[in-house]
Design goal:
about 210 residues, alpha/beta, four-stranded parallel sheet, 4 strands, globular
Amino acid sequence: GGNAFDRLDFEFCKPALDAGFVVLVPIFRGENGNAGHFEAMLGEADDAAAAVEWLSRHDAVDPDKIYVFGHDFGGGISGLLSLRDDVPIRHTGSCAGLYHDFSFYVWALSDTLPFPLGDKGERDMRLLLSNLDDMQRPHHAYVGNNDYIRLFLPTISRKLAERAVAQPLLQIEAVAGDHITSLDDSIRRYVEFMKSDVKGNSANEQKP
């Protein structure tokens, strides 16, 4: 989250590291001195996909057991990666990253939107909720009980109801906290999910 990487972001990775996972945190275009410019989750999703592809070739990584998780902006990117079939990802998750179309209007007020606000096509390319029919893998979205995203859950539920095929791939779970304070519990829950999923997957692989 925050469109930049700092020490606190690394601290948030500790639960996954302590659970024995290899962790890669990509720094996207235009961040921390990188070349390029902010694209509001468009080019950044390409950067994240490239990072996953690179990680999958690492000797210490099982390419069939790669998970992606992000908070806020990173959560939006994680959701977009659930749409791609060209990267070796098993599952994606997010906290406070289930963006609604209204989010772009907020960004426009702060003069950080890199495309014309009125261009619906540009907005849709950056939203998981606008592309539910194209989901390739499950995405687990954690939303804080006091997060402003909760205001959009009725609309999100209607979108899911209209797309019965895609609905099982998107799971939404309420957690305590707001847009920021919900992160710790969300990370804990997702790490527990990864541990359980890896264990279950390994058990299935050992069956004759």
